[in-house]
Amino acid sequence: MIADFNCIPNEPETTVVFEQHGTFDDIPACYQSWQSHDIIGERIVFLEKDLDERKDTELIDKVKASQLVQSNSPITLSRNPPEYLFINFNCAEVNKR
Fold first, then answer.
1. In the beta sheet, which residues pair with residue 45?
2. Which of 7, 17, 21, 87 is exposed most, by the fewest CB atoms within 10 A?
């Protein structure tokens, strides 16, 4: 499981600040906190092969119901086929000083 999460693709300008491998709703998952340009955010990354027949809306609802997501946070879902599904949340612009 962990070996599969060691190769999660990122955009060149994205820095992963924190990463934790584990499970989410009994599905192997990787939680990441990240920064890209002036945006910070969090995401849960799943391997497509571990999702069985779960629907995107089911996964989004479970993430939204978790204590990870701030109540007003938009949630986005994206894929990096054929291996990964990303659910992003708590995205915000970094304060410029």
1. 30, 86
2. 7
What rounded mean pLDDT belongs to the chain?
A: 91
- What residue spans define the domains of the chain? 2-93
For 20-44, what is the HEC assignment? EEEEECCEEEEEEEEEECCEEEEEE
Q: Which fold has domain 2-93?
A: Phosphorylase Kinase; domain 1 (3.30.200)
- The gap from C-alpha 56 to its chain's centroid, in whole angstroms, comes to 13
Predicted TM-score of the model (pTM): 0.90
CA–CA distance, 77 with 59 (Å, rounded to integer) = 9
pLDDT at position 82 over 90? no
- Give yes or no for a contact between 75 and 87, defined as CB atoms under 8 angstroms apart: yes
Taking alpha carbons only, the member of 21, 84, 89 closest to residue 51 is 84
